[in-house]
């Protein structure tokens, strides 16, 4: 993804995760087998900031928490979600930020969706709300219920 105007572009948590992971891999590859004075120098706190951001992005309840193992998010998945929403004429009713939040949060119920979409009850019927949740579960998957500890 190329950002043409940084003031209007929105990127997903997956794109942030992917960029940081790729950047770290590039640094490791570049510095591999080189003496200390030949290694690429980066700001001292860059590695710490990258680690903190990646930890945040893969901590529960984030949908990216199993990205390293399952690879269920990829470059095409956001387009697939938006096209599914367009097929049932729901994408046009969503604001760009709301669609991005749906992708980032992966709501599993209409109650969670209500926190994402402004004035949801007046803009969407109950059937449309349920359809959005169904499409999200179909495209992005859903969390498996956890077994309660005794």
TrEMBL record:
A Pfam family hit: RNA_pol_Rpb4
Statement: the UniProt record of this protein carries the keyword Transcription: yes
GO cellular component: RNA polymerase III complex
One of the GO BP terms on file: transcription initiation at RNA polymerase III promoter
Domain of life: Eukaryota
Keyword Membrane annotated: no
Subcellular location: Nucleus
Key words of the record: DNA-directed RNA polymerase, Nucleus, Transcription
Main location: nucleus
Gene Ontology molecular function terms on file: nucleotide binding
PANTHER family hit by this protein: CALCITONIN GENE-RELATED PEPTIDE-RECEPTOR COMPONENT PROTEIN, DNA-DIRECTED RNA POLYMERASE III SUBUNIT RPC9
Recorded family membership: Belongs to the eukaryotic RPC9 RNA polymerase subunit family.
Protein known as: DNA-directed RNA polymerase III subunit RPC9
């Amino acid at each position: 993804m190329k950002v043409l105007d940084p003031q209007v572009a929105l990127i997903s948590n997956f794109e942030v995760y992917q960029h940081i992971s790729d950047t770290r891999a590039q640094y490791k590859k570049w510095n591999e087998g080189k003496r200390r004075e030949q290694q690429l120098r980066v700001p001292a706190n860059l590695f710490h900031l990258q680690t903190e951001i990646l930890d945040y992005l893969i901590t529960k309840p984030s949908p990216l928490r199993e990205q390293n193992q399952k690879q269920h998010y990829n470059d095409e998945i956001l387009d697939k979600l938006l096209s599914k929403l367009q097929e049932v004429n729901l994408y046009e009713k969503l604001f760009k930020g709301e669609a991005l939040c749906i992708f980032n949060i992966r709501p599993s119920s209409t109650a969670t969706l209500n926190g994402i979409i402004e004035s949801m009850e007046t803009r969407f019927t109950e059937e449309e709300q349920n359809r959005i949740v169904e499409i999200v579960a179909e495209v992005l998957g859903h969390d498996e219920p956890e077994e309660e500890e005794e």
